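Model it.
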Amino acid sequence: GAGALFYEDAEDMFVPLFGHLRFNLSKKRNTIFIDTKIGYSPGTIDDSFDGDMFGAFSIGYSFGNFDIAWQTTFQTFYGESSRSYKNEADYEASCVGLSLGFRF
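Modeled.
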């Protein structure tokens, strides 16, 4: 999958690419699920930051084609000063929030 993350402190947007795994607790249309997205974000739109690891983990409830979940997301990235030596991330961003989705 792919997504879009805007970070106010960086004043830029990342476009992470990720693998998506989902486990439904039952085969019914309405069920509790556990969801994870792990991947890499190549950098920001204006190329001012180099991206790194991306991940999102959630637990929620599916109502047919609609999902509601409690989700935590993290992203690490590097500034211009450390592009040549990526030993550890310059920045780490994370958030926790409510996720709403529609599946088709």
